[in-house]
Design brief:
Elements: H1 38-41, H2 53-65, H3 70-89, H4 93-101
Helix pairs in contact: 3-4
């Protein structure tokens, strides 16, 4: 600060009214979505909350160590799960045991 500078105060805008219900939820509204919705674009934005810190750190490190974006790494993990699931469904007992241990048994959606 120089000798000619003077401190000043700027009032903050009023806070929005409190939201009803639990405050640990987020509503995400996308204003610039394409006319046909996200499916037409082929991608979606996702937000993951309350990821254990160690898991988040390992995820970022694993993606970055491979020079992959988080999205690319997630795509690879989903593909890996699908391939392992196919092995288990084809009778590979080791794959089946590993998936069961992780709580990733076959589901129908």
């Amino acid at each position: 600060m120089s000798e000619h500078d003077e401190p000043f105060h700027v009032p903050l805008p009023p806070l929005p009214p409190p939201m009803p219900g639990p405050h640990d939820r987020v509503l995400y509204i996308r204003a610039d979505a394409p006319p046909g919705g996200e499916a037409e674009r082929g991608t979606e934005d996702i937000l993951m909350r309350r990821v254990p810190a160690e898991t988040a750190q390992r995820f970022r490190a694993a993606a970055g160590g491979r020079a992959m974006t988080h999205a690319q790494f997630l795509v690879a993990l989903v593909a890996l799960h699908q391939r392992l699931r196919e092995l288990a469904d084809a009778g590979n007992e080791d794959a089946k045991r590993e998936l069961e241990a992780l709580g990733l048994t076959t589901v129908t959606v």
